[in-house]
Every structure is written in C-alpha cells, then in structure tokens.
Amino acid sequence: MAIEEVIERPLAEAPPPVEGRPVAVGRPRPKREREEEVMVWPDLVFIEFVVAVLFTLTFIILSVLIDAPLLNRANPDVTPNPSKAPWYFLNLQELLAHMDKAWAGVLLPSVALVFFAVIPYIDRGHEGEGVWFGTKNSGRMTVFTAIYSVVVTWILVLFDAGKFERITRWFPGLVPVKEQVSQEVSPGVFETATFEVGKGFLSMKDVAKRWEWSIGKLDWPKDFSHIPIPFNDVGWIPWHGMNINLPATMAEQVIPLSLVFLLAVLAIAIQWRLGWVRNRHDVFIVMFTGVMAGYLTLTIVGSFFRGQGQALVPPWDVKVDPG
C-alpha cells in the first residue's frame, strides 16, 4: 500500500504497524468551507446576468436620448467629413495626427502589445498575485497615474492643436503666419488682403516648417531636409536613392517618442520619490495604468472632439457631413 493512501485514510482504518517499518499517522483531509468556494451558479452567472441587463438598459436609454440617424448609402466617390475609424481604432487615428504614420499605426501599438505580453516573464514576484490592488500602494499609484496620464495627454493634444500658441510666441526663429482678411472697400465690394501675423507653435510640425535658424552656412530646415544615407548611390543596397528629412524626422518621430518615454519615466520617478514605487511589480502597475489611461483619453478625443477636417472642436460642434 502506498504511503499516500495511508496518509489519506482515517486513523481508525490505518493498517496495523509492521515491525521494522515507521508508523504513518494519517489525518482526515480537511473539508473546504462554503465561503472558500466560488460556484458557477449563482456566484458567476448571476453577476453576468445582472451586468447584461444593465448593459441592455443603458443602450436603450442612450438610443432614446441620443439621435443617431442613419446616413445615406455609402458612396465610394464621396468621403464624409469628418471620416472616422471605428471607436476601437480612434486612438490610433488620433495618434496619426501627432506623429509618423508608421509609428502611430503599427510600431507603437505593437510595442504596447509586446510589453503587455512580457510582463509575466519579467515580473516574477508573487506579492498580490491575482488580487486587485494587491500591493501596499497599488491603489494610490493607479489613481495618481491615471490622472497624470489623462492630464498630460490632453496637454499634448491641445499643444499640437495650437491652443497654447500665445504662450510660445516668444520662441525665437518662428516664421510669421500669413492670414487673409476680407475687407469691404465699398458697399457690396470686398477686397482680400494678406497679412503676416506673428504666432507661436501651431503644431509640432512647425519644427520642420516654421522654425528657422542657421549654424554656419547651414540653414534649418532647408539644408537638413535632404541628407543622403551612406551608400545610397549603390544600386544593390536596399535603401538605394533614399534620403533623410531630418526636420520631419525630428517633428514626427524623435520629439513625440522622446516625450512619451520621458513622461513615463517622470511618472515612475515622482512616485518613487513619494515612496510608493518599491519594486518591479509597482513599476509595471504604473506603466500599465499609464498606457490604458492614455488609450482611453485618445479614444475620447477622437470620438467627441474631432470635427470637420479633424479640427479640435467642442463636442456640440461635431457635425457629420454625409457628402
């Protein structure tokens, strides 16, 4: 008889001791209490049913209060203005307005997904495993990081929409903007005049377009927009004939990606100084919360604050032109 069977049997049923062998003292297996069990019914299914009912009622109320008329039949020759992606891709569409298309549409989302996938392989600690807010400061870290990410994302979106241009008018080297003003010179006769107006940064793309300075005989951005890649004149090289547009690369790739990285490091550093971030597990809580809060913020901006021509407008001014 195996020793496991002897241990699992009650003491009264244990076989008589054999001379020369150790006596195995068995214990009855403790029974689990009802409070320790989680049953499919009613613990799980009932909660899911209540959530489904609330979800359905919410949609009914929204459909009654919010008018969502069907537009005309899709016409491939006419593009609605604004033309928006499905809501779950609106965050990526919003990113397209702020950085390089390859990074916004493919590389940055791929980096985020890979980051989520490798967390269990890097964070091997068991503190608070499987428990919501299982570590000491995880609750306050989550709240702080969520608020921080929402505020920072909104500031960057507003800056790239030119909402802070008055603050940046002091910046040296910015070329004035040409604006056309229509004036009535006589009754019923209008004349259009063009004026140069000094303005600050209207978007990050102004780094590559309106910001001008010189170093020696080199002028930015004119002399930096066509930098040959080494060996690009060799026919069999994959990058044959390619050149680097350094101002566009700075405005659409280097500066946006550097801001994302530095702001993430800043969020971790602030909470480390506060004594909240203590280990690798806390760092991943901050990073995961920041990614999700930024994701939701960009989705809200793309859904409710982008009007015709993808201009940033209040939600009540968003009107769809069916074409």
* Estimated helix fraction: 40-55%
Q: What is the overall shape?
A: extended
Straight-line distance between termini: 83 Å
Weakly predicted, low-confidence segments: 1-12
- Measured by DSSP, the beta-strand proportion falls in 5-15%
Given the helix and strand composition, which structural class is it?
A: mainly alpha
Q: Main β-sheet, in a few words?
A: 2 strands, antiparallel
N-to-C SSE series? HHHHHEEHEEEEHH
Strand count? 6
Trace the largest sheet across and list its strands. 1-2
Query: What is the average per-residue confidence, as pLDDT, rounded to a whole number?
Result: 83
User: Any idea what the radius of gyration is?
Assistant: 31 Å
Give the structure's gist in a few sentences.
The protein has 323 residues and is mainly α.
Provide a descriptive summary of the structure in words:
This protein is mainly alpha-helical. Among the domains are: 85-164 and 203-305, no CATH class; 172-200, no CATH class. 44% of the residues lie in helices and 9% in strands. The chain has eight helices and six strands; from the N terminus they run H-H-H-H-H-E-E-H-E-E-E-E-H-H. It has helices spanning 3-8, 40-65, 90-96, 101-122, 138-160, 206-209, 246-273, 280-304, and strands at residues 177-186, 189-197, 213-215, 218-220, 227-228, 243-244. The protein has a two-stranded antiparallel ribbon. Strand 3 (213-215) and strand 4 form a beta hairpin. Helix 3 (90-96) packs across helix 4, helix 3 packs across helix 8 (280-304) and helix 4 (101-122) runs antiparallel to helix 8 (280-304). The longest helix is centred in the last third of the chain and has 28 residues, at 246-273. The protein is extended. Residues 1-12 have low confidence and may be disordered.
